[in-house]
Amino acid sequence: MNTKNERNLQELIISRLDLSRQMSEEEVRELIDREIQQESKKRHLEIHIREELSKEIFHSIRQLGILQELIENPEITEIMVNGTQGIFIEQKGKLQQLDLCFDSTEKLRNVIWQITAECNRVVNEASPIVDARLSDGARVNVVLDPIAINGPILTIRRFPPSPITMEQLLAMGSLTEECKNMLQELVQEGCNVLVSGGTGSGKTTFLNILSQFIPETERVITIEDSAELQIRNIPNLVSLETRNANVEGCREITIRDLIRTSLRMRPDRIIVGEVRGKEAVDMLQSVNVGHSAMTTVHANSVRDVVSRLETMVLMGMEMPLSAIRKQIVSGFDIMIHLGRLKDGSRRILEIAEPLEIKEGEVIMQTIYQFEQKGVLKNGMIQGTLKKVGKRSKNN
């Protein structure tokens, strides 16, 4: 449906549909097909045109318009809509622009409002930036104009319908059996684990993988901005999600609020999707008073995690750097750093243990390090996770 005539025909049929009452998907499809059949008698539309027209009208009414097919494609991991100027996708780790775009800002806004309404989120001039999620767990970020100069920006990050398992990582060569056994032991012992990495490095995915080792007898509480974790093996699971303030008077519920209240919910383990602000204070305090926790932090390396946590703690309260560093060393048992290589693949780059404070600095012991061995003709990077040290804590 690329020509102007076809788009006009689509809009004409939509304008004639009576959508004032609640209807099932089958009823809507029948109504659309009936209108297309009548129009076909006037214009003699070919069968493939009628089928495409029916699908696109249904998508624009009941689903997400031109984005629906992209969302249903399991190979697409990211969808980026830059106003009406273009749509980009990430597929198999590669970024590409599609020969596809919204006809108008109004149509894009309608899709955005549909998404946010279903997620019980409000996006408007008063609240132009919103994080939400689709029913299938995909993460959504919206930035409206005029904050976004080139029109409404919609970014959708999709996750696999079934969580990736540790066995799949082993099959891909992302880590060794020995490393997997160490991580399994750490999680089962209730050790505090911090996963770091850049944007799109797979932090949430890896947290999901580690959660598969949590004993089924534990009471687990997850805390996230937008629920993304797919923990399926824990019967006693509580999932908490933040809430933005709105014009109806509902106050904001932050990660800090949720961490604090979770400590009163008798948790065996707390999983925080990502620490990115003042909540680092509460996170550090919880891991230093006996609570078992797992979380992620945006950082460039395991050593960069220390300075990132210091900065975030200082956003929440005044505390000497020496005290913060002591809490990091005593609070976290292991740090796992993920990265995205030039070929688009996501890898475990380093697993390290914070050992001690020496001359005011946190000393890290690297246990596993990614070692690049070469690059194939197709650009894929070859390498292995090599053991270079051993754990000293709890040995």
Describe the structure.
With 395 residues, the protein is an alpha/beta fold. It folds into three domains: 1-62; 65-158, Beta-Lactamase, CATH 3.30.450.370; 166-387, Rossmann fold. Helix content is 35%, strand content 26%. It is globular, with a radius of gyration of 24 Å. It starts with a helix and ends in an 8-residue tail after the last strand.
Outline the fold blueprint.
Blueprint: H1 4-16, H2 25-43, H3 47-62, H4 68-72, E1 76-82, E2 87-91, E3 94-98, H5 105-118, E4 129-133, E5 139-143, E6 153-157, H6 166-172, H7 177-189, E7 193-197, H8 203-211, E8 220-224, E9 237-241, H9 255-262, E10 269-275, H10 279-287, E11 292-298, H11 302-316, H12 321-331, E12 334-340, E13 346-358, E14 361-375, E15 381-387
Parallel strand pairs: 7-11, 7-12, 8-9, 8-10, 10-11
Antiparallel strand pairs: 1-2, 1-6, 2-3, 4-5, 5-6, 12-13, 13-14, 14-15
In short:
With about 400 residues, this protein is of the alpha/beta class. It has helices at about 5-15, 25-45, 45-60, 70, 105-120, 165-170, 175-190, 205-210, 255-260, 280-285, 300-315, 320-330; strands at about 75-80, 85-90, 95-100, 130-135, 140-145, 155, 195, 220-225, 235-240, 270-275, 290-300, 335-340, 345-360, 360-375, 380-385. The strands form 2 sheets. A 9-stranded mixed beta sheet has the order 9-8-10-11-7-12-13-14-15, sandwiched between helices.
